[in-house]
Automatic annotation (TrEMBL):
The gene is pitH. It is a multi-pass membrane protein. It holds the Pfam family PHO4. The keyword Transport applies. It is found in: Membrane. InterPro entries: Phos_transporter. Keywords: Membrane, Transmembrane, Transmembrane helix, Transport. It comes from the Bacteria. The chain crosses the membrane at residues 41-65, 77-98, 104-122, 134-155, 220-242, 263-285, 305-331. This is Low-affinity phosphate transporter PitH. It comes from Brevibacterium permense.
Amino acid sequence: MELLLAAVVIAAVIFAGSNGFHDAALTVGNAVVGRAMRPGWALSLAVIFNFIGALLGEGIAIVVANQIVLFSGSTELILTTLLIAFVAATTWSLFTYYLALPVSSTHCLIGGLLGAGVVFGFSVNTGEAMDSVVWPLVLSPILGFILAWVLTLILSKSLASTPPKPLFRGARMADSVLTAALSLVHGVQDAQKIAALVMVAILAVDTQQHDVLSVVDISWPVRLLIAAALALGTGLSGWRVVQTLSVRMVRLDPFKSSIADGAATILMYTAALIMRVPVSLTFVLGSSILGTQYAGRKGHARARYFVPMFAVWLLTIPAAALLAVVLGWIVKASVGL
């Protein structure tokens, strides 16, 4: 059982690293494209604040660990389910990175968890999953678009008489601060979900009860491990997805870049600290970028890039779930679980 637990922890660490690798550059991408920060400095800032954010809070963790799949019964089944969920989530995340398409690590993990949970016979709290996970994940990009659109309209009219040079200088200064804020909340959002499922695995091994497992807090060793993995992935982060979102999909200037980051920051902190629900930074930020393009002056959004983004947004949960189902059936057939 200890080997299976170790496999779950290793899979969680790899997923956390791939999360940082895939997503973290997005927190600094607009600032880099808008020349608010140099790439090296921006990534260094993201590493630090992702690590700090990963150590903060646990409200989202409790939702993911206790209110979606109800884990009870066999320790071996619980650990196997978690392992398959992490493997499926990591596989889909890396596949979409190869395609240079933005993806939500939250969607990946929730999809993998639901698919593996169903295969191994665990109860799924459908109502809670819809209210606490699915609806926030679906609605948050829509709100990101609307908020960025409104902010762009208001600020464009308010600052219409400001010459471009001082306007862009101020926008770059603001974007530097927003980059740190986005990196911090990225750590809060994404690390908590992973750490919560590691705690489920540890509880499954440490307790002999067959009732539904309930995570009440996250131990500091688990927090530090996942935070370090997320930070390491951030430091190694690639720029393929940033090129899609911040360069190919739209034409951003420093002003619109800072507005998109500001809108995403507002929504991400509201979700993490007030509502305590998981949302996707990738799609909140992507939709906020699009929102800046359709307010005021005509934007330059390119459909051949944002249409695939929305397709991935809709497909990730079912795709990760299907992958987990396939892996689950292979494991069941192989070892007779």
